[in-house]
């Protein structure tokens, strides 16, 4: 039995089957060693929007993109991360459903907990407002 807003209800056979599905983590996030290669910095498609985006995302806009690699990848400039302090990761939802969205949330949560059980995943829903 499951509940919607405190009201118990029976799950359909399909809902029971779907609740047993376990997506797989990508190979680059399995295990406790992560290799990261940093690439080009983030930009906006329209330069006129750069200031607005930079204000909305002051800690990430203009920073290098991180490419996660398999732990066995031999990339000379890749940074190897073996220490995993507890972190808080925020995931911004655009307000509508998207295919695979639940798998992204599940995979990110699982990877965070593998690397440090004290890490936290936060979800944000709604419009971003400039400050």
UniProtKB/TrEMBL annotation:
Keyword entries, A-Z: Cytoplasm, Glycolysis
Keyword Metal-binding: no
SUPFAM superfamilies per the UniProt record, alphabetical: Phosphofructokinase (SSF53784)
GO biological process, alphabetically ordered: photosynthesis; response to glucose
GO molecular-function terms, A-Z: 6-phosphofructokinase activity; diphosphate-fructose-6-phosphate 1-phosphotransferase activity
UniProt-listed InterPro entries: PKF_sf
Superkingdom per UniProt: Eukaryota
GO CC annotation: cytosol
Protein name: Phosphofructokinase domain-containing protein
Originating organism: Gossypium harknessii
